[in-house]
User: Fold this.
Amino acid sequence: MKIGIVVFPGTNRERDVAQVTEGLLGCPTQFLWHQQTDLSDSDVVILPGGFSYGDYLRCGAVARFSPIMQAVRQHAERGGYVLGICNGFQVLTEAGLLPGALVRNRDLKFICDWVHLRLENTRSLWTRGYHAGQVIYVPVAHGEGCYYADPDTIQRLEDNQQVVVRYSDAQGECPDAANINGSLNHIAGICNQRGNVVGLMPHPENACDPALGNSDGLKFFEGMVTEALAFT
Amino acid sequence: MVLASPSPFTAEQLQAHRLTPNEYEQIVRLLDRHPNLNELGMFSVMWSEHCCYKNSKPLLRNFPTTGPKILVGPGENAGVVDFGDGLRVAFKIESHNHPSAVEPYQGAATGVGGILRDIFTMGARPIASLNALRFGPLDNPRNRHIFSGVVAGISGYGNSVGVPTIGGEIYFDETYSGNPLVNAMAIGLMETEEIVVSGAQGVGNPVLYVGSTTGRDGMGGASFASAELTDKSEKDRPAVQVGDPFLEKLLIEACLEAFKTGAVVAAQDMGAAGLTCSTSEMASKGGVGIELDLDIVPAREKGMSAYEFLLSESQERMLFVAHKGREDELIEIFHRWGLQAVVAGRVIAQPLVRILHKGSVVVEVPATTLTEEAPVYARAVLTEPPAYVQEAWNWDVQTLAQPSDWTEVLLKLLDSPTIASKKWAYRQYDCLIQGNSLVLPGAGDAAVIRLQTVTGISRGLAATVDCNSRYVYLDPYEGGKAAVAEAARNLSCVGAEPIAVTDNLNFGSPEKPEVYWQMAEACRGISEACSFLGTPVTGGNVSLYNETHGQPIYPTPVIGMVGILDNLEKHCTLGFKKVGDLVYLLGQAGGTLGASEYLKVIHEMATGRPPRINLTQEQKVQSTCRLGITQDWICSAHDIAEGGLLVALAESAIVGDLGVQVEVSD
Amino acid sequence: MKFRATVQITLRPSVLDPQGVAVRAGLQQMGYAQVEEVRVGKYVQLELEAETEEQARQQVDRISDQLLANPVIENYHFDLVAV
Amino acid sequence: MKFRATVQITLRPSVLDPQGVAVRAGLQQMGYAQVEEVRVGKYVQLELEAETEEQARQQVDRISDQLLANPVIENYHFDLVAV
Assistant:
């Protein structure tokens, strides 16, 4: 399973992801510069965290028009796997590959903190290692992470089980106090109808290395390795 | 011999340029002629305390600056320390106090941007930043506005540029009401074979201007009378620069890529006073000259005068000297990253700074006159402590009423902003990016991040910034020692061996005898403690004239210190871990209530003599603590600081989510 | 011909506008109780070359729709003047 | 009487506008080469009660100067209509 990590000017968490995919899991990983248009060499495309184009105007607003995004759209349409983390999720919604939008956090401040997430859809490549309802403890680091979509879209996401993870408390409940940024329905991550494109605001890649104290996020990436075995 | 011809400048112009009459005379003697207006502007900035340390140089001379692990000491853009196995760490601290009072967000943001450039200009990738902040009391809306703006600025810039903000300290006291302190510290890991120096070399080598375009920003507020600027109305000339973290992130990647080609001879960040400072310092450090043509410098605005070009403080700009013939190779790299890059001049044999504009020479002065020959003021130091100190030392603890309710006292202390949790602030900082953060803000007395060698060896780097300015105010000598001792203690509490210091000396006006006495005594204490504890000073920053309506702030010599953890698993945090664990006090109990937070918060008094530091005892306590951590005897360690033993116990209990029972025998 | 467009981008009424809420709270605190409603958005000023005003309008409209505003959460409206 | 004010807040001309620079680069990448200059600022819409238009104007001016704009680096201008 070959991993391609997209780098826009302003992306700044590409190495954090590579430390997991290649460092911990040994998957061949390469960085894809935003002007590239050929993704044939990557089975999985990851859009990592950062401030693409400085996040000026809107997070991901300018990145969406980079040459590589056309190739990412085609990769997704062919059924290829795409993961958008934080800024990557924002770019995917701006590009229309995922519904809705990420707006400013409810209390107007950047938040870097650890949160509980409840796994909702465990059929995707990324959440296959967890069981539905499982609660994991991973960090968030964003200023515009409040998920918004019109009521019909929200209804469709819930009906098709396209919500992948929700902000919850340690017991897996979803009181308002656990809604860290005001997202509708506590949504922290969603997938497209087909399930091959996933976007989430939290950073599982910063909770993988046991040497740093917490590895709840490692299973998130291990799905790719088991999938690779299924391929060979 | 002073020239017979009259000076072309009025007294107001000199005053606006913060040059005294005899400083002007010294310029005339050095040049053997009157300077023109552009040259006067350059001398005004290069002879400011910020650039030449004219008041503090005599006091800094006795800092210890060498040691087995010190690769680069004071004089370069940042200090560099050897962490073993090829790991070389660059670090430095710098202040942006005055701009942050004018525009808190941009003042703090550009402070972070500036200190990061000092790191990567050495060839190091920035891997962490810390900040030491001081504000007036939070019940005043103006102070709240400055505090929230500064935190948002550090968050906005640091998070976007992708460097984790892993630690720091925040104090609140009336003394900072009109004059907040924003000191930013940055740490980097060398990525180039050779450490990049700033001295220009090789006559004929091209001088490259790289990074952002140049505008008129940062001119309005600086020490320039409006007469010198073109007819731009005041409304259009902002006093503060606006930072662009997105462009800085590109600059980091482009510069590191450029350094690795080996085509760069020297590099320097355009910090305070941009082109003036970089051209003169690079020339004088290399013993050569630099000729630069302003017509080639990419400008953001039309019709800028030479004066404005030379003194503009636009952000995110660097000056390089490249090997002749390899400049295009470098220009290609910067253009690929979407950045400006032009050959704006060349290295010349005569040790001059020669600036061309619109085809004519507008500046031609020997470089060393700007950098080395600035005046140095060795002022007399008071032989007796000033009246306020003597009065404080006579304070008698017996006059103090015993509190009736100790619980009430503890709750009041824990509720005072200087002691209370700083999570409201550090929750806005991304402390996890780059994936190497181990001890996070609030978890330990110092921050710890992982360093990894190419061969897979991992080691810990611990960092902290510390200073109790009330101690320094009431006894500068002991206060200076205490700041160094506390920084070392915080590193030892996470299991790290203290290695080296960078300092940010924030003081009032040196022209006031009591302030100069505070400076001299604090520096004496700092150098004694640094020598004894084996933590040499590798550089730093001096910020003077921190006053409001003539009232100087408390003397605040902030100490930034880094330490080594050979074994990453053997690190320690401050929260209690298990029920039944025993609590030990290392070192003597007791001491004094003089200058304590208890006196300030409960009795609203800032008086008494602060505790005296016994450095031998300090060394023993710290090495015992470090040994205990490596032997796994110790599972949590916390330094006793503001609020004393009572608050330290409470903090360890709160962070550990456990209780503690202690008997105190008389 | 040179034109200057001023584009005003506002959040759709259905989208929570925390900035507007915060500004209104700030104004009330400062004693401006009579301010009832506050909405905060973006303001973009463009200078562009175009043959005719009509062409300029089309350009600005496409730019606003494609980049400047996100139709999921924002509305836009612009004015155009020849310079 | 009810009034609606639209306040446009822009960075001072000689202040670096990183957003404007990034948006212009994005537009050029999308093929809109004829866009020469982009400045991005804030847009605030207020609804307020006031006896007279004159009084409403004074209120909005003071509000803009004290809270909405940062006089150190921003200029503002506003329009007012009765609702």
Summary: The mean pLDDT of chain D is 90. The longest helix of chain D spans residues 53-68. Helices of chain D lie at 18-29, 53-68. The longest strand of chain D covers residues 35-49.
